[in-house]
UniProtKB/TrEMBL annotation:
Protein known as: D-alanine--D-alanine ligase
NCBIfam families in the cross-refs: PRK01372.1 (NF002378)
Keywords: ATP-binding, Cell shape, Cell wall biogenesis/degradation, Cytoplasm, Ligase, Magnesium, Manganese, Metal-binding, Nucleotide-binding, Peptidoglycan synthesis
Biological or metabolic pathway of the protein: Cell wall biogenesis; peptidoglycan biosynthesis
Gene Ontology CC: cytoplasm
Length: 329
């Protein structure tokens, strides 16, 4: 299992680093983002940084102009922090930030597009179809869904084509449940991705780049009581067990680490990411999706991976900020 190289720590600024943590946003994942932002602020403060939390609202740009930050840490989840738009504005304003550039975020945010790119790079991923609401409506739901089941079989995983926190994601085992699952997903976006369900060991694969290139942290194994790591399983205490490092063979652990780093590189990501994957019974690691702004709460998987690697979360976050504060994007 590869781990971040300790020798690559960037030179510390000659003054207390001033960081702004962006958290909140106006979307379905606001509360999770606020929790991540609070945790990041606490970790950075303990690490000796001058940090404050700001929301992504109309006061953000004037505030950054009046009191510039050495670097910004984006703890925003959902479209606000992950679709690339905010990062493009920060680029226009010349504000350095931790995380992937806008173009890479746009690609990762579109799950079907990201799957196409990583599959072209030789990464294994379950078969899927992306279905806009207009197609679902105009061609007739019944006929379209019959074709999906004939091609992909059952069970299926139905999820919004963009978004995080598993909002709207559902496992469908019966044909008669598929229309309702589709309608439920359309509440979160105009396009739904229907994916062949792969049964196996679910892993969260965190990647961090502290200056020597992207390195995989120990995999975190996810064991939801319900069998599906949906929104309820993620955020209801006691409904999911986590094991860090994952209880997999050394061979599978190496394959998972290589997959996560490959995805990070192929999609053009930077600084940190978290890839979600499934290990099927034959030991194959299947890519599901990637997160450019992984959760950073006390119960999130990125901090678990950092701890399993023997690192301090505050130190890792501070080093990422210090690197961006001294590097032009």
């Amino acid at each position: 299992m590869t781990e971040p190289a300790a020798a690559a720590e960037p030179a510390a600024p000659q003054y207390p680093l001033r960081a702004v943590v962006l958290a909140g946003g106006l979307n379905f994942e606001r509360e999770v983002s606020l929790s991540s932002g609070t945790q990041v602020w606490e970790e950075l403060t303990r690490a000796g940084l001058d940090a404050e939390v700001r929301d992504a609202d109309a006061d953000l740009l004037p505030g950054l102009a009046a009191s510039p930050a050495d670097a910004v840490f984006i703890a925003l989840h959902g479209a606000t922090g992950e679709d690339g738009a905010l990062r493009a504005v920060l680029d226009l304003a010349g504000v350095p930030y931790v995380g992937s550039p806008a173009a890479a975020c746009r690609l990762a945010w579109d799950k079907p597009a990201a799957k196409s790119v990583v599959r072209s790079a030789g990464v294994t991923t379950p078969d899927w179809v992306a279905l806009p609401h207009s197609t679902f409506r105009e061609l007739g739901a019944g006929a379209v869904l019959d074709l999906i089941v004939a091609r992909l079989g059952l069970p299926l995983m139905v999820k919004p084509a963009s978004g995080g926190s598993a909002l709207g994601a559902q496992k469908v085992t019966r044909v008669e449940d598929l229309p309702a699952a589709m309608v439920s997903c359309f509440a979160y976006g105009d396009t739904v991705m229907v994916e062949r369900f792969v049964d196996g060991v679910e892993l969260a694969l965190s990647v961090v780049d502290l200056g020597e290139g992207p390195e995989a942290l120990p995999a975190v194994e996810i064991v939801p009581e319900s069998g599906v790591f949906d929104y309820t399983s993620r955020y209801t205490p006691g409904l999911t067990e986590y094991h860090a490092p994952a209880r997999v063979s050394d061979e599978v652990a190496r394959a998972a680490a290589e997959l996560a780093v490959r995805v990070h590189r192929v999609l053009g990501l930077a600084d940190l990411s978290r890839t979600d994957a499934i290990v099927s019974p034959d030991g194959t690691v299947h890519f599901l999706e990637v997160n450019v702004s992984p959760g950073l709460t006390e119960t999130s998987m990125f901090p678990m991976a950092v701890e399993a690697a023997g690192h301090s979360l505050g130190d890792v976050l501070a080093r990422l900020l210090a690197r961006r504060a001294s590097t032009d994007r």
